[in-house]
Please model this.
Amino acid sequence: MERSLAPHEAAIASAGVRLVLHSELEGSLDEAVLARALVQLRKSYPLTAGSITHRTGETRPHVQVEESAAGPALGHSSDFDDEISAPLDWEKGPLLRVSVVRDGRTRVVMTLPRAFADAMSYQVLHQRLWTLYTALATGRPLPAGPVRPVLGPALDDILAARFTPARLRDFVAERARLDTQAPPALLPALASRDGGPAPIRASGSPVSR
Model:
């Protein structure tokens, strides 16, 4: 299963933009159960085991999902900053990276390419992981079957099917017009002192001199 990346997806992927979400845990974490939950998460969302490929002679990369591809494996780190900036090989896959970071605290860090996710879908993926973890840890039934569609269409294609190019241009023009009516507020110069904020009085008003 595969499709070519839409222009905006390809641009985001080539820039290496990622989404990072982490959970700080209280109490003990059963890493064996979490590793099993990742196996089940791959069954729910096969795209997490996908990859981004670049083919000779084609201008845009492809995202592909192979049944035989290895799913996300549980990694480990002792430095949170290193983990959230670790190099990612989306050409090799998998697209989802999950690590346990122990640096005095215990955190589970999830990283995913921004090209295929937004804030809401990432929250759903995060929630599914912990739902699976809880089910495995307590013996409850697991969610059945993959979430459909396994590989959804690009946003570009969804918009093209619903709106004509003229309507999209009109929408962008109208948003631009509205933006010009609400320019960003500028902080008064007196609120800045030597490149930083001015002292604040108890009332919250900047001190002027």
User: Anything to note?
Assistant: Confidence is low (pLDDT under 50) at residues 202-209.
